[in-house]
Every structure is written in C-alpha cells, then in structure tokens.
Specification:
heterotrimer; A alpha/beta; B mainly alpha; C alpha+beta; B: mainly alpha; 12 helices; 2% strand; C: alpha+beta; two-stranded antiparallel sheet; 17 strands
Chain lengths: 341, 312, 471
C-alpha cells in the first residue's frame, strides 16, 4: 500500500528472474511486486530458496547475467527503472543510493585490505570529498555503529575484529555514503543471538537517525517482528502474503504463513509438545508455476489449487494474499477477489 | 610474523647441511676417482696426485676437511680444469646464468599473471580456452624440444636472432638479441604454470563474498580486480615461486646447452659426467644456497601479502 | 511443479548419489577430459602392443636396416633377409611374416664390387687407384642408376651409400658430391654394380615353417648360401613383399614408428612406477603425519620442508652418474622427488578430515587408529590422490626425458633403452634435414602428456566443482 501522493523509494513490478543451469532452467523469481516507502522498514520473509535473496540482488543487478537473466518486470527507484540503466549508471546507484549488506561478516570483508581502505573507497567513489575528509567521515560512521575507539581501529584488518564487530563495520561501510535505501540480506543469521539483538538495535537506530528506508530479508520471523512495519512473505519465487507486521502475526491469512508461525517453538509452550514442521520440501522451480506452489504441502489443498494459480489479491481491508481461500478463526472461507470478507 | 620468519630462518642452515652432506657422499662413494679416466700413470704419480688433492685420507676426514674449507667459502680447486679454482669458475660463469634465470623469471611472471588474470575474470571465453590450451602445450612439450624448434624457426629460418653464440655487452650481460630465444624457452613452462595458478586463484577469489561486497559498493570491474581480487589470487603463485626457482635452475641446464650459453648449468653437467668432484659439489651447493634463499624470500613475501600472517 | 506426491502428501526425496558416481558424471560431461581418456588409452594400447605392431610393419625395434640409413616417412623397400643357412628339412629362420607362407621366392642379382682408393691434396684429385693392386688410373667415370658406391671406413665397414654421377680425373678439383672434406685426404670407396645377367631366383617351399625344398632358378639344391648378391624382390605365395616405414627410419635404419612405441613403453613404465613409488611413500607419510598431529606432525612436516629446499634433480643426476643408470634406480630416484608433494597434500586433507564428525563417531565407537586411517581417512583422500597422481605421471615422464636429453638414458644390462626422451634427443641431433626424427617422437610425447594433464584437470574439476567457480 503506498501512501497517496508520496512516491515510493523502491517499487518492484512483476519481476521474473530465471537461471540457466546444467540441469535446465530454474525460475527463481516468478512475478514479484512490492513497494518500499520513504523511511519504512519492509521485511521479506521466506524459506531458503524462495527467491528472496535473488529478488533483492537483482535490484542492484548483482546477479551474474550469464547464468541469470531478468525475463520481465521493472524495478523502479524513485521512478527510474534500474534494469534499464547503463553499467556506469547502475554503479552510481550501487553503494551510493542503495546499499546492501550480506549475511556472513566473516567472509564479506576483504581480508587483505585495511578497513579504512574499504570504507573510504566507497565514500570517495560516491562523493567529492578529499581522502582526509573521507577518512574522517569513515571514523564518524564507525563511531555511529558503535565501534569503540574508531580513530584508533580504523587502520586495522578485518581479522582483528570479532564477528559482531565485523557486521557493524559492514553496516558502517554500507551507510557511510548516506544511501536512501539499505537492503540487508540475513544480516544476523550468522551471529549469536545476543549479538543479533545488538546489530538489530544498531540498524533500527540508524534507520531512525537517517530517515533511511530498509528492506530486511530473513527467514527468522522474530527478527521481522522487532524491526519492520510491513512484511512480505515469499514462497517458490512468488509473494504469497503481504501485510502490516502486527496484522500478519495476529491474523495470518495464507496457509504458508500460518504454518510458518506455527512452526516456531515458543518459550511458553508446554514441555513435551511436538514441533510442527511443515511437511515436504519446497518445489524445484524447473518451470514457472501454473498452479499453487504450496499445494503439495498444504493441509487444506483442493483440486482447484492443483490446477490454477491463485493470484495475489486484496481483501476488503486491503491486505494481500495468494490463496483461493482465507482462514479466520480456524474456518476456511473463500477468498473473493476484492470482495467481501 | 616474527615467529613465522624465525621458523623459516632456522631451516636454512639445516637444509644446506643436509644438501652438502648428501652431495658429498653421493659423489665420493661412487667407484672410481677423478684421475682414473685419464692416461695410465705410474703409481708414484698417482700417489703424488692423491696426496696433493687430499684423496689419500679416509672419507670421513675428507668430509670434515671439505666442511672446514666450505666455512671459509673456499670451494677448492677444479680437478679437471687445471689451474682454475671452483670459486673462479663460478664467479665467471655464475652471473651469466643469473641473468638468464632472472630474465626468464620476469618474463614468465609478466606473461603468466596477465594471461591468468584475464582468463580468470573471463572464464570460458575464447581467450580463456585459447590461453589455457597454449599453457597446456607449454607444460607438455619439454624445454629441449621447444628450444631447438624456436632456434630453428626464429633463428635459422627467419634469421631474427642468433642461436649458438654469446657476446657479452657489460659484465655478464650480453647483447639483448642473444638473450631472447633462451629466455623464452626457459620461461615457457613457468609462464604456463603461473597462468594456470593465477587463473585458479582468480576463480577462487572471484566467488568470494567480499568480491560481491565490492560490487555492491559500486566499484568498477578493473578496480575490483586490481585492488581486491589480485592479492588473494596471487597467493598460490607466490607459493609456487619457490619450487619454480628450483625448476628454472634445472631447466637452465638444458637451455644453456641448446643455445651454447657459457653458464653454470653447463659446468654442472660437464663436471658431473667428468667426475670433477669439487666443481660438482661447488655447483650443487651454489644451487642449493640460491634455492634456500629464494624460498626464504618467497616466505617473507607471502607473509607480507597476507595480513593474517603479518599481524598475528 | 514436477514433484511426485504420494498419498500422504509428502514428496519423494531425491536418490542419494555417492561421491564417486557424482564425480564420474561430471567428468563425463567434460569433453576435453573424455577425449584425453581416449588418447591415453589408445597410446597405452599401442605401446603395449608394440610387439605385434612391429611384426605387422615387418621389423624389430633393434634391428636397423643400416644400408638404408635415415629415410623419410613412407619409405618402402625390399625386406633384406638372411638367406644363408636355409637348408632343406630345417626350420626356416626367416621373419614371422614369411613363416606362414607355402612358397617364398627371392629374386637376386649378382653384384660386382670394385674397390677404389681416392686421394686428394689441396682439394685436387691426386690419385685414383684400385685397392687390390692394379695400376692407378687417370680418370674414372662413375655413373648413377643402378651403380652406387659405399664409403668404407678404417675397419672395412661400409658407411653410407650414395647413388650419383661423378667424373674423377687427376688434377681436377674434388667433385662436390663427396661433400665437405678437409683439404687433403684419402677415402676408400666401393663401386657396386649389379651384373645384369646375374639374375637368379631362389624358391623356398615351406610347410608350416619347415623348409621342404629349395630351388635355384628351378634347380633343386640342398642349401642356400648368398654371398655378394642383392635381393631385388621377395614374393610370398606370389605376393610382393616390401617393408614400408610409416614414420620413416632413424640414422641406423630402425623403423621410427616401432621405436616410438617401444620408447613409449619405457616412458610410461617409468612414469607409472615412479609415481606409484611416490604415492606409497607420500600417502602413508602424509596420513600418519596428519592423523598423529601435534609434535609428530610438526617433526614430519619439518623434515618435508627441509627436503623441499633441496634441488632434487641435481641429486638425481649425481645419483645416476655415480651409481648406474639402471631402470630400478630411475624408479626410485624419480619417485623420491615426487613423494614430498604427495605427502603434503595428503596430510592437508587428513587434517581437515580429522575435524569432521564421522571421524569423531568412529573413534567414539572404539575403532583403532589404524582402522580409522584405513577405513575412513584414506578412502576420503582417494579423490585428491587420484587427481595428483594423474598429474604426477606426466611430470615424471618429462623429468625422465630431461635426463635422457642430458645423456642419462635408461640402461638395462648395458644396453640403452631408448625412451621418448632419448628419441627426441637423437632427433634434435639429427638436424633440419631429418626433421621427422624430431617431430614424431615429440608429437607422441606431447600428445600423451597433454592428454594426461587435461585428464588430471578434468578429474580435479569433477571432484571439487566449487573450485571451478560454477554456480
């Protein structure tokens, strides 16, 4: 839902991405559309292989195009289609207007270069500062992410930092150019739970301070609950549900979303209660889905689900989900297009 | 870094000692003696010669004497090249080989690194297949086939370069045209290996996460390759340089013979087949020292390149 | 959407594939590697079948048709045979290819030999005389065609054979056909002529390799003695027999193709055995070092590091020069060069495997270190060992050929066994005019090594696809 009048920062429109592999074509992204508004934090949730990373890497055109290709769709950054930019133009966007951080801080920093170099090269690339100014800016940013004694440590090498510190450095590196939008791909997955909380704090604080938009990709629902205002759930390269975060947790309307929520063990569960995994495995995506991709694993699937593709359609209150039915208080109701609840 | 270097440094004298001992006994324990091949001579003359060269003492004593001399950098007189000491021969012929070896090393590095880097970043392109095929040929065809072929084609047929002479310009350095064909011949297998190693290293590095980070920052390909990728890609090459020098030394034996270059390599072969003990030992020790020092240098460079070692 | 669904709504799990089957599948896709396998197999087969091939060509590897010297590929000539000593009732001591025939006919021609001595001084002919007494003559006309002359060396053996025309006249300059000579000298040469009427056809009737009857121009005789006769044609059961040398001959008239195959045997044998030696030492050493860890590992690896610093080839050369060039010595010496690398690799692999859980599990269940090593660690290092073995063999072959080039060829009971390296050396000595002697052995070696290197590469990629950088 975009607010009337304000242009969204990022808008994905019916994106299709596929890969040519030895084993044939893989349709990784099949018609994904969503919007990120100014200052908003959007969560993108899904299992491994659902296409969330590919979708977001495509924004910055980081997918190598020999095996990968965007077969259709648009990605609009403040009205400009990023997919149509020249190589030179997209390089200006990368790191400058839209920044991205990745999962494993142990491997994402170049072990052979000092972090001063790794930070200042980004700053110098996207601004007119002198090297001394850039260095100052880098030190400021390190301070802002919470690295103690930034001036003293800026000339260190990555291996001299711990995992949590490295992720902070990564964040500093991404944000030292003051981008409009930060895409964070599983930023805390490789970290301990306690460090996770710290990193999320840093992200939240910086987002607020800079008025930046954030796309947070994760498979961990807990992370989303604490950070995002809206959530998009992906499965088999498509979006299956989109809603404000509290609404999603309180009232999941797609069977996959409810299954996901149910599968997370809670601290207040009684001892001895069995876990609820979702039976089966995600599909292989050798073809574009022509029927509901979740049907094989869905406890409520019917014939129609196996023959037709349910569209991502809005409910009366504007929430979107892709299923022929919707579930309310355990009851299975038809999902009428744009109609009554 | 300190501890790393220290470990390496300690090995130097041990290696040299092992080398000297092995070579000494291998040469001496063989049947025959340096003078047995020559015209028959009287007992007394033989005796006098043995005394003069100290061959009458027991093997152990000879060994110790040799070590003592060695400690003072005296490699003894040559048995077959009368009137010359080994030191003199080495001083005369050594630098020539050094010039050849160094040039070959440089050529191999330049060619190999360039080809390897480009092949690595353009994997499966025509250039990649082409250069890797050439590299494979360079590895499969022995030096002593390439040498004569080059001499034949560029030397005799096209007449661009001289093939069987050697004229010095300044010190050991010859006029450039004498160096071209031998250098290329010697450098070819190394260029091939370096290209393959660089390519493999580059492929490895290219797929690392930190390269993806560099792309995400908006850097251009050239910057990413040179500033970010090269360091990591070069590491296997640097490791290879150690054994590479050993192979260049061995290769020089053949190249010098083919192109009639008056270097240490030819001296070694000659003296080995002639049983000129002192010269053989002298040259082997020389090669050993060079190799050990070079390995040490390589280790130091490696330590510098990889900050994980430098600062641990 | 192609996953099968069974009645419980779950999906089939994909069939698990073993490591080797997976690697094999990947290898098959690599066209260059599969081509290499074919090349290597063909070369290996040819070399093993060197004997039958030699028989098919009609030669043996050590027998040289000295009188034909070095000839270009495709040269065909009459088979010269030792016809003396064929008697009725005995076993025919002729080549294999004739033993199966029932009738062999040799057409021979008488030879007339005159021996001359030619002296020249200051490049001008001084005297021409016949060696067996007789007065010197002032001039001598030598005609080509079926007249040829052989130069005789100091021991009375013919060295070389040429067909040419020359007019020798006293006081005239030495004709060019004699080639480069010193200013003054003496040569003795033979003028060999076929006596046109001296044609004789010897017929040998054979039955299962036994001589049943001998005929001389149709007349039965008891025994064939051929002295001073030239064999012009050989017919076996009416079919003319010649020998064609597919790749030409070397300076001693030995067939090059057959020599290459026999040479290949040596090179490949040395390559394989020396590699095997290095494998044995290296794998065991590396496995022990890696598994033992701690001080033992540090010590063993320190030894390896030290030995690594020695320029091995020099020691090998010294070894061979001083202790003989037998093939066993070569196996050992070259194997000793390579084991270090193998040991390092195996140790590295074992070290990383040691950390893996299945080793913990094995230890927990009480297996002894030896059984862990043999049942778990070594099989898992097999992949990388195979790769490096395939790459070591060509390296060893190159080293052996290098030694041959310096002059340290493989010897067996005093005789030099010519490997590819020795053939290449002979070829490069033979020069431009006889380029086939260099080209074909080099090609055989290069193609084989090329194939092995490609195969090794292919195996490496097949066992560890991440290294290739493919998604």
């Amino acid at each position: 839902m975009s607010e009337q009048g304000a242009q969204p920062v990022l808008e994905l429109d019916d994106l299709h991405v596929r890969f040519k592999t030895d084993g044939g074509l893989v349709h990784a992204v099949n018609g994904v559309s969503y919007v990120v508004n100014e200052g908003e934090a959007l969560g993108v949730v899904g299992e491994s292989g659902c296409g969330k990373s590919v979708t977001n890497m495509t924004v910055l055109r980081l997918i190598p195009t020999p095996p990968g290709e965007v077969s259709s769709g648009r990605i609009n950054y403040r009205g400009t289609n990023l997919l149509e930019l020249s190589a030179k133009e997209i390089r200006k966007v990368r790191g400058g207007k839209i920044a991205m951080i990745f999962q494993d801080p142990m491997t994402c920093l170049n072990p052979f270069l000092r972090i001063s170099k790794q930070l200042t090269e980004a700053i110098l690339l996207h601004s007119d500062m002198t090297p001394e100014q850039a260095r100052q800016r880098a030190i400021e940013e390190l301070d802002r992410v919470g690295i103690p004694d930034p001036a003293g440590r800026i000339d260190s090498y990555p291996h001299e930092f711990s995992g949590g510190m490295r992720q902070r450095v990564m964040i500093a590196m991404a944000l030292c150019t003051d981008p409009d939008l930060l895409i964070a791909d599983e930023p805390t997955t490789a970290l301990d739970v306690t460090i996770q909380a710290q990193i999320l704090d840093v992200l939240r604080r910086l987002q607020a301070e800079k008025g930046m938009s954030l796309v947070l990709i994760t498979h961990d629902l807990a992370v989303v609950a604490g950070m995002c205002s809206r959530v998009v759930v992906m499965y088999a390269g498509r979006i299956v549900e989109e809603a404000p975060v509290d609404d999603l947790f309180a009232d999941p309307r797609h069977p996959y979303t409810s299954a996901l929520l149910a599968s997370v063990p809670r601290l207040d569960d009684p001892l001895g209660r069995h876990l609820n995994p979702i039976e089966g495995l995600p599909p292989k995506l050798a073809e574009e889905p022509t029927s509901c991709a979740f049907a094989p694993r869905c406890p409520h699937a019917e014939d129609r689900c196996r023959r037709e593709l349910p569209p991502l359609a809005p409910d009366a209150d504007g929430r979107l989900h892709a299923c022929f039915f919707r579930f309310k208080d355990g009851e299975k109701l038809p999902h009428t297009d744009g109609g009554q609840a | 870094m300190g501890r790393y270097l220290f470990k390496r440094l300690i090995q130097v004298p041990v290696v040299l000692f092992v080398l000297v001992t092995l070579s000494f006994f291998m040469v001496r324990l063989a049947p025959g003696n340096p003078f047995s091949g020559e015209k028959k001579m009287d007992e007394s003359v033989q005796q006098a010669l043995n005394e003069k060269y100290g061959l009458d003492a027991s093997m152990g004593v000879q060994y110790l004497r040799y070590l003592k001399r060695l400690a003072m950098f005296d490699l003894g007189p040559s048995y077959k090249q009368k009137g010359l000491t080994v030191n003199e021969i080495i001083a005369d012929k050594g630098p020539v080989s050094a010039v050849l070896g160094l040039s070959a090393m440089i050529v191999a590095l330049v060619l190999g690194l360039t080809a390897g880097v480009i092949s690595g970043i353009r994997q499966n392109s025509n250039f990649d297949y082409g250069s890797m095929a050439v590299a494979m040929v360079g590895l499969s065809v022995p030096t002593f086939v390439v040498g004569p072929l080059l001499a034949l084609f560029f030397g005799l047929y096209l007449g661009w370069f001289p093939t069987a002479r050697y004229e010095r310009l300044w010190g050991p350095i010859p006029y450039p045209q004498y160096l071209v064909l031998p250098t290329i011949t010697l450098a070819l297998p190394f260029a091939a290996r370096i290209a393959r190693l660089t390519r493999a290293g580059m492929l490895d590095v290219i797929n690392q996460d930190y390269i993806r980070t560099a792309w995400a920052k908006g850097l251009r390909e050239r910057v990413i390759v040179i500033r970010h990728a090269m360091r990591g890609a070069m590491l296997p090459v640097v490791s290879f340089l150690g054994p590479a020098v050993a192979q260049i030394l061995t290769g020089s034996l053949v190249v010098e013979q083919i192109f009639q270059i008056p270097g240490i390599g030819t001296e070694f072969v000659k003296s080995a087949l002639n049983r000129d003990y002192t010269l053989v030992l002298g040259t082997v020790i020389l090669f050993g020292v060079l190799l050990v020092l070079f390995n040490l240098l390589v280790d130091v460079i490696y330590g510098f390149l990889d900050p994980r070692i430098r600062y641990s | 959407m192609s996953d099968a669904t069974n009645s419980e709504g779950t999906q089939e799990i994909e069939q698990g594939v073993s490591l080797y089957a997976d690697a094999w599948r990947r290898l098959k896709k690599n066209k260059m590697a599969m081509t290499s396998v074919v090349i290597i197999t063909v070369m290996g087969a040819l070399c093993t079948l060197a004997g039958p091939v030699a028989d098919w060509v009609g030669v043996s590897p050590t027998y040289g048709f000295r009188w034909i010297r070095a000839q270009a590929p495709g040269f065909t000539h009459v088979d010269t045979l030792n016809l003396s000593g064929l008697t009725v009732g005995s076993e025919a001591n002729v080549r294999e290819r004739y033993k199966g025939a029932s009738e062999v006919v040799f057409e021979t021609v008488d030879r007339e030999i005159k021996e001359f001595r030619l002296t020249w001084r200051r490049k001008k002919v001084k005297s021409i005389s016949m060696t067996l007494g007789a007065k010197p003559v002032d001039e001598l006309q030598i005609e080509g065609g079926d007249v040829y002359w052989q130069e005789i060396d100091a021991d009375g053996k013919p060295i070389g054979e040429k067909i040419f025309d020359a007019a020798l006249k006293k006081k005239d300059p030495l004709p060019e056909v004699f080639g480069e000579r010193e200013r003054s000298g003496v040569i003795v040469f033979r003028q060999v002529r076929e006596v046109p009427d001296g044609v004789r056809a010897y017929t040998v009737k054979l039955d299962d390799g036994q001589v049943t009857s001998l005929l001389d121009n149709g007349e039965p005789i008891e025994e064939i003695e051929i002295e001073g006769r030239i064999v012009k044609r050989v017919l076996a059961d009416g079919v003319e027999q010649t020998i064609t040398h597919p790749l030409g001959t070397d300076l001693s008239g030995r067939d090059l193709f057959v020599r290459i195959l026999y040479g290949g045997r040596i090179s490949l044998l040395v390559g394989l055995v020396a590699t095997f030696v290095s494998l044995l030492i290296g794998v065991v050493y590396g496995a022990i070092s890696g598994y033992a860890g701690g001080r033992v590992d540090a010590l063993l690896m320190a030894i390896v590091d030290i030995l690594y610093g020695i320029p091995y080839m020099f020691l090998v050369i010294l070894l061979l020069v001083n202790f003989g060039q037998s093939i066993l010595m070569l196996f050992f010496a070259l194997g000793a060069v390579q084991w270090l690398t193998m040991a390092r690799i195996v140790r590295g692999q074992v070290l990383s495997l040691k950390q893996k859980e299945f080793v913990e599990a094995a230890r927990m269940s009480g297996s002894s270190p030896a059984s862990i090593m043999f049942k778990h660690l070594i099989p898992n290092t097999l992949g990388i060992v195979v790769v490096y073995t395939t790459l070591t063999v060509p390296a060893v072959i190159l080293q052996e050929s290098f030694l041959a080039f310096i002059g340290l060829t493989v010897e067996w009971e005093g005789q030099s066994l010519d490997s590819w390296g020795a053939l290449v050396k002979a070829g490069s000595d033979a020069g431009l005019t006889r380029s086939w002697l260099l080209v074909w052995p080099s090609l055989a070696m290069a193609v084989t090594l090329f194939g092995m290197n490609f195969l090794g590469d292919g195996l490496r990629d097949a066992f560890d696809p991440q290294q290739r950088g493919r998604t």
